[in-house]
Queue: 3 jobs
Job 1
Amino acid sequence: MIHPDDIQSNRPPKFGRDSILIIEDNPDHLFLVKRALEECMPGIKAVGTSNGQLALDLLTTNHGLSTKASPRLILLDLYLPTRAEGVLTLQALKNHFVKLDQPPVPVVMFSYSDHVEDINLCYRHGANAYLVKLPDYHDWVTYFSGLRDFWLETATLPPHQIF
């Protein structure tokens, strides 16, 4: 029987000079997430901010992101530092792309919380996925490899040109 890991794809990755926006208020977590992303997604620019307003400023000015494009994916911590601020940021991000008449960028929420209420709240407000944070760096790399495989190599997303 052939194992999927034994199959080599001749397909080039669907990402190159793309960026991922990370919104995380804990500087240690932000460092860990950026490092894990850079390890499993070479060529992706991991751009981090500590709050929702800074993220919206980045999206508005495109400063620090890939030229002429929105990020391919947004990772958003639910507790920034409060759950309410995380949800407000999620709503603001979704509204940002609607106002610009651009296709929305997928937003993946992440938190140490595995409470059903938190998970349901995020999906009700438009999150595209929810990840529970892991304490180990190597687990993060495994998580982000799966994230890369689905969101950046398998799923077909609309182009995100800045008009």
Note: The longest strand covers residues 19-23.
Job 2
Amino acid sequence: MKETFRYIIPTLIIIVFIYLITNNQTEFDSSDYLSFGMIFLTYFYVIFTWEMLERMRTESHLEKRPYLIADFDSPKSNLSFYIKNIGKTPAKNVKIKVNPDIKLRDSDTINTTLFKGKIEFYPPSKKTETYITTTSDFFKNNPDKFTIDLEYMDSFNNKFTEVITLDLNHHKKQSYIVEKELKDLIKSLENIKKAIEKK
């Protein structure tokens, strides 16, 4: 409810009330003052109820709308980029643009391959992730900050436009624990075996 509408009615009532008192055109008793106060209380109660309903409707809409997020991930020093719908409803006509564009392989980039066209339907909890390169190699030729332009619609054709700024400095300075897999253990045992056989 607009601020002007919220205050214009009580302001007019006060002006009329003061006018009647100052011009002695009406005699007021205690019941009249009580009625005047009840008018104010009723008005502000209506205003409060209206705003509460508006807030509930807005929160309900925000809770049910799609929410697309974008970010970089770097497990085991391998950098990847992903988008995910963390909302409770599907997104439609999704358009994504990464600025500046990121080279994947050869002459391919994220904007010319993965996000070249719009995605017609993107359901809740869906995640699209693509591997880029190792973290160390990435920062040799790329900046630390990127902006992600997201455009999409909900099931009621309401349009959402969002710009996400991502700072990758924490990926650059991140430390990693080298985890050995079973194949690494087998390879180590084979190397030991070969070394023993040579003796």
Note: Helices lie at 3-22, 30-64, 135-141, 169-172, 182-198.
Job 3
Amino acid sequence: MRSTCRRRIAPHSCRQRQRRHAARRQRQPGFTLIELMIVVAIIGILGAVGLPLYQNYIVKARVGNALRSVDAVKTAVGVCIQEQGGVLAGCNAGSRGVPTFTPTKEVTSAAITDGVIVATLSSGVGAGVDGKTITFTPSAGSSSVVWTNTTTITHAEARTLVERNNPPAAAASGAAS
């Protein structure tokens, strides 16, 4: 091996320079194992927290779609009740201007009897929701129809979403059960 050091420089300082230069050449760029393990741990923690929140969001969105899919029928039932002077009897699916329900992705069927709508949820909506029912019960007032929602849903956040807009008396009795 030929020396690249000049003769004027002291031999020991030349060797030190050669060692430093060789050490720089041997270092390879990249991440250390500990750095990669930290990144994997952070991604795991974010996944463990984020996945359940995302699943709850999906279930709530699907239940919200189910509630909105019954709105047209609720409006027709409300008109039927108002036209009959506040009487709920006879406001059934397919009569007195109340349409039959068209199934959606979230709601398999909806039975309408004397103004009460019982919507059966589809499978695939989410855990604690699949196949459960939501019952919309009208109460005729002097100038409006007030709806009370009850459900067999066991998913806590979805159940809260269904019962959120109940009148205060119904909300208090629903919370007691």
Note: Residues 42 and 133 are 40 Å apart (CA to CA).
